[in-house]
Amino acid sequence: MSATQPPGNSGHIRRLEPVLEPGHTYASVTDKIAAVVLTRPLGIGWLAGFTLTFTITMVLFISIAWLIIKGVGIWGINIPIGWGFAIVNFVWWIGIGHAGTLISAILFLLNQKWRTSINRFAEAMTLFAVACAGIFPLIHTGRPWMAYYMFPYPSTMGIWPQFRSPLIWDVFAVSTYGTVSLLFWFVGLLPDLATLRDRAKQRYQQVIYGMLSMGWRNSARHWHRYQSAYLLLAGLATPLVLSVHTVVSFDFAVAIVPGWHTTIFPPYFVAGAIYSGFAMVLTLAIPLRKFYGLEDFITMRHLDNMAKVMLATGLIVAYGYFVEFFMAFYSGNKFDVFLAEQRLHGPYSHFYYALILCNILTPQLLWIEKVRRNVAALFLMSLVINTGMWLERFVIVVISLTRDFVPSAWGRYSPTFWDYSTFIGTLGFFVMLVFLFVRGLPAIAIAEMRELVEHGSHSNKEHK
Amino acid sequence: MSDMNDPANDKKLRILQGAPTPETAHGVGHHDHDEEEGDLTEREHRLDLADLREKLKEKSGKQYWRTLEELADDPHFEDLLHREFPRQASEWDEAVDRRDFLKLMGASLALAGMAGCGRPDVTKIVPYVKQPDGMTLGRPNFYATAMPFGADAVGVLVESHEGRPTKIEGNPDHPSSLGATSTLVQASILNLYDPDRSQTVQQYGEIRSWSAFLDAAQALATSSKATQGANFRILSGNITSPTLVAQIRKLLTQYPQAKWHQWEPAAGDGAREGAKLAFGRYVNTVYNVGKANVIVSLDADFLAGGPGHLAYARQFARRRKLDGPDSTMNRLYVVEPTPSVTGSSADHRLPMRASQVELFARALAAKLGIGSGVSISGEAAKWVEAIAKELQKDRGASLVIAGEYQPAAVHALAHAINASLGNVGNTLYYTEPGDGEGASVESLRELCAEMDAGKVDALLILGGNPVYDAPHDFDFMSKLKKVQTTIRLGSYFDETSAWCQWHVAESHYLESWGDARAFDGTASIVQPLIAPLYYTHSAHEVIAAFSDKPGTPAYDSVRTYWTEASTRLPESADTGWRKWLNDGVIEGTKAVPTTVELKLNAASLPAPAAAQGDQIEFIFRPDPNVYDGRFANNGWLQELPKPVSKLTWDNAALVSAKYAEQQQYAYKVKSRGGEHGQVRSPVVDVELNGSKVTAAVWTVPGQDNNTVVLPLGYGRSRAGYTGTNKGFNAYVVRTSNALWTATGGKVTGTGDSYSLASTQYHFNMEGRQILATATLDEYRKKPGFAHELGELPEKSNSLYKEFAYPGYAWGMAIDLTKCNGCNACVVACVAENNIPVVGKDQVMRGREMHWIRVDRYYTNTKSSTADNATGDPSEYQPALDNPQTFFQPVPCQQCENAPCEQVCPVGATVHSAEGLNDMVYNRCIGTRYCSNNCPYKVRRFNFLRFQDWDTPQLKLLRNPEVTVRSRGVMEKCTYCVQRINNVRIDAEKEERPIRDGEIVTACEAACPSEAIVFGNANDPNSKVAKLKAQQRNYTLLGELNARPRTTYLAAVRNPNPELEKA
Amino acid sequence: MTEHHSYLHGVMGEFDTPEQLVAAAKKAREAGYKHVEAYTPFPIEGLAEEIGFHWTAVPLITLFGGVSGALTGFGLQYWCSAITYPLNIGGRPLNSWPAFIPVTFELTVLFSAIFAVVGMIALNKLPQPHHPVFNVERFAHASTDKFFLVIEARDPKFQLAESARFLQELNAKHVSEVKDEE
């Protein structure tokens, strides 16, 4: 099936540097990756990192508790700016998730072998990002305990959700996205869980991984159905991932607020999502490969490719910015024109310029191969882009609301302590989950790596 | 008004049956009265703990409790319990065995309980056991009464739910209401339930019983008898209650040497002195604004302040009713130092320092051949020319009104001009002044002098708050300390009470009997809607306390007075009384016009002392919301954006835009709330008359450049939870010789800044179709001018087939030509819909909850997009020296294609079959998406728990027909859906369609100028449909195709072409 | 040991490379074995076919899931908005089908995905914690680096000694019988 390498591509692969450093055997890749989970002792670094992020996670929980006690009034939102940090963070986190699914699904369909060593934790990242994102739509409501009204259940009032509202689309899109990503991830994990089961020394490990792997025994028939299912999932996840941020962008595009009501939003949001997603993958991959010595598996080839993807999506985003302005002036809609001018020299213009700097100017450095090959530079770049994408969401959500139709109702927005603590809290939560993940599950898909070894040996043979 | 009548009458029919029958009340009154007498006879007998213990000794069980009740009936025992340290406190040292102790505790507890739920022994309005006639549970009854205010009284119909007054409406039959109400009248009901009101009699801050006070009063009375009251003084504000005046007069006859002084900090002497100057005696002036084609206001805010302003506003608006291009309008010229409501709706407005107005008046008079000319130059000269011409043209149909705060000379000149134009008898007439001279600073000066000289041993202060608001050169407090016995009747234990020996808690007008005269002399009976909530008493009872009939209930005094007075009336009290109560006016009391002949020799007037050059002139004005400070503790008014400045919760030193620029005052819009919330403004020291006050500065476009306005009524130190320490106290720099206009002061920046809460900082419309305006000529040339800035797309453009509204289609039309921005609608809405007060901090965060807001725009100013003008006063532009001001009330627009509904995920806001944009509170989860998507930003969100769920008094206030919203839900205007449904129920019971004008929304009912009209847009004959049919009718931001049911009729002004081109 | 009697599942041969395994599987089929199963640390192309497994129902199940998801999605929305509780929402038609597309799509994907995964797991008869092959010590390598071929006892042609020899001829190392308790 398509998971194995069609001979056609092999030549092309070889001309570039390998996606897996040579000299590895089935056993060696298995050992190296499984060891991180099974045998490697808890490093002081891991403990410190986990403790820190755990603490920050507690900050998140405290912030949420206080929010529920007092109400959303503890945030900086007001009339007219009904949405603030909460929605900005929601869109940002959801966007970050996208890279994971994209790598595992789309690159899979496109037979991009290099995805193999990064897809596993990219998918994990997706799940964690969605988890962080999912918090916000819930807690940003005035009465979170009533949020279940948004689900279609037969209520005593006989009333149902209002399906014309993009927020309902969100509910379905995000929950579907979360579920499918989880399934996809789990299916991918299944053989590796079996591997861990078979290699585990401690009883508890054997039990846990044994249960998780459900008795998977690598039979050819299992593999056959497995691959069929995996391929289908990839095929489903691909349109899904594109739809999710499209739907998120509808939250704005469907509204009539100047600066929101734009048809460019869906593609431009999706591109932005992938853009920030890859940035986040880099932010995670670079330290990971360093601290766990996985440079052999996550090679410069991977970093280089991801850099290129960022460059490409970054340009799409830039196009989006341009079109927003163009449409404003081309349409001559006085509200849009006014908003465009507000962005350039309104009270929040500095955010806009910062965003241009982060998302459009800086990434142009990626044209230079030297930069793409410089791990430190890439790491910094990924941070810059993540910041930029957050700013973009801030500009879209908040600035558009500050000055809409009726001048008498114009207002401004400034976040409060609780806005910040909640946002930072989710950052901590996210990283904490990553810490748990790298110690609990194979951060790289072992079975697929073995395929790579297999394919490598093939190509060597062909070579001789 | 015709449409107002039927429903009003319906209500009043119910009143006849439902009203608390005076007879029963009378009976009870007598009963109590005897009781009091009883007390007086056995006054010597005093309880102390000893006999108390005796009384309780052998008692136990039933017996014991019965004894307790006997004790409870004895006011002296109550007195004993109230006292913090009983005189016999020492006796506690004696061994008291446990049993006795417990019994005593039991007694005090039991009585504490009684004190809690007990009512003071005044005429009771007994909660009914069996349902009285005309009272249907769940249906409000309306009772007519009147709110005494200053030299006027506004007749009102008070909505009562099962005995709880909840809402005040205007009384269509009352001359100074005509059905309208002002912000102060609307908000006065909150004072009734104000938990900070003082609740008992106090002596030196200790709680005393009423009987104890009666004792003290009588003691004082007897001692004063000897000196004929030589050392006895009464200080009050303006009193329009005939009964009270009679009572005081009677008292003064008993104590010939005693004196009655009156002081009103916010009422000018100009009118009275002016009349004296012009006619040699004091006469009242009553205007027929409606009859005037040309009105010249010399610094007179007659639409929003002073006696009769509601009636004037209505008459004025009716002369600006446009049915089509061929309708005519009156024309209003205003000369004033600072923009007032009246000035803002003028056709021509000339900013002029207050002291110059007299010059202007002289010049105008001279032009009309009165007195000798004075040199006046520049714009003013042109004005005099043009106005004089107009006045001449409209002899007999013109009107010159002098401002309340202008000196006598201006008033005299106004009288002269009106006389020479033959307006007297047409557009105005004179009446004999009602009761008393009225308040004056001289009266207070005299009192202070006497107090200082130690001539006053006993001072009775009825209401007012002289310690706070007397001119500071009087130093009233120190004088007060020289008086032996000081007795204060006040509804709050405030600055004055704090320095008085006795404090008697004053009853609110909604909980006590009384009477009051309107500006035109018409008297009304003030009937209580509810028994006093606390141990409070009215001025009638306090005065009676010093008479030979102490303890006379207010009801008796009033009833007695009118029984005597009714001999001069068409109906005797016995037959007329219930009709008077029902109608809210006493027939035949309207003052008849009196004839006066002008004695003024304009030439002989002393030369006006006008401030020269650019010397800064300070003027004092009552605050539009808290007035002279008496409403400082009223949250509704504190949170109400002031009509022109849109400030809330503070007063500020108002300066002109140019002055602000000269002084380089820098305003900083903070990002917390921003333009729609918090503005950081510079702080200045105002040094004037030898004292200093520190105030925040606020720029008011259209103000005279050399004028600084110091609004009165703020900086209270003992106002209560809400009102204490808000804003700055302008009385500190106010002296008796410069009550309204002062010079010689200076303003120095302190470098500090202060956060002011303003609900609208940005005043420019940014070239959007928001508030369409034109002159009458333009309107006649192009009746459809309102549609130029973008209009409703064709319905055929829509892909959707639209919903049909076959039955009623509720709609509203707001006539911007009539709206004068007085804010009455806002407070009416707050009162009707249980809208919470959120406080300054939340307002600064842009979270105020008003369902209807009144936007203020300046039309001839530069927009933000145009060469970077900010569109707010923080950047000077010449247009701000005298911009055209327009007001626009914005409730929910009730869009047919509501953008808010489409985005609500849970269907918490949906459309009704009659086109209402319904809000389902208990379905709302608070995503705030609807508010984001509302182009008009009329939705309000409960960001925190804004409603006060704990204060019991406020629970009584709530309108039971409107949900009290909880935290986390969105809310907004519903077109008063509860009123719609009430009427619908009636109509369906009578199997008839709802009549036009039968449903009156709260805002519509309150509006003095009838600018708001609600009704069934489907019925072509309905008022609202007719208005919507006009070409002036346009949709706010129509191009969005939201298709609002609320539409606006463009504002048309009627400027004088001559001045236009000039 | 005495009463404790066990039954035979089959014989297992271990190979070092996928190629050997595939070749062996081919041979086994040619030798007429019907019930052969192969175990490999990663999927090997064509192996399933070699052991006579050609078709899987997973795609069909997924399709079914997708269709039912789509119907549920639109059906639900239409029923809620137009039939059971019709409301005038901002003047939009009761059946605002364009607005119903996103949810329909999401449910389609959701249902397909769930059906695909659950289908796959069910068809593989998982979870199944115990299986005879696990009793073979070296079988743990099946999840690491070794490739196994099992000729099952239920195969009509199966005879322990012969089948074992057959595997050895295919130069499988560690030919071992797969036993299991009743």
Q: How would you describe this structure in keywords?
A:
B: 1062 residues; alpha/beta; seven-stranded mixed β-sheet; 33 helices; disordered N terminus; C: 182 residues; alpha+beta; four-stranded antiparallel β-sheet; 4 strands; elongated
Kindly provide the name of the CATH class of chain A.
Mainly Alpha
Give the proportion of residues in helices of chain A: over 70%
**Total of helices of chain B:** 33
Coarse structural class of chain B: alpha/beta
> Which stretches of chain A are low in confidence, meaning pLDDT under 50 for 5 or more residues running?
1-15, 460-464
Pair of chains with the largest interface and how many residues each contributes: A-C, 65 and 62 residues
Quick one: overall form of chain B?
globular
> How much of the sequence of chain B is in beta strands?
15-25%
Task: Describe what you observe in this structure.
The complex is a heterotrimer of chains A (464), B (1062) and C (182). Helix content of chain A is 72%, strand content 0%. Chain A is an all-alpha fold. Chain A has a single domain (23-140, 164-454), classed as Formate dehydrogenase/DMSO reductase fold, CATH 1.20.1630. Helices cover 30% and strands 18% of the residues of chain B. Chain B has a seven-stranded mixed beta sheet, sandwiched between helices. In chain B, strands 21, 22, 23, 24, 25 and 28 form a six-stranded mixed beta sheet that branches. Chain B has 1062 residues and is α/β, with parallel strands linked by helices. The radius of gyration of chain B is 30 Å and the shape is globular. Chain C folds into two domains: 1-41 and 147-182, Alpha-Beta Plaits, CATH 3.30.70; 58-123, no CATH class. Chain C has helices at 18-30, 47-50, 58-84, 97-123, 160-169; strands spanning 6-15, 36-39, 147-152, 173-181. Chain C has a four-stranded antiparallel beta sheet with strand order 2-3-1-4, covered by helices on one side. The relative contact order of chain C is 0.28.
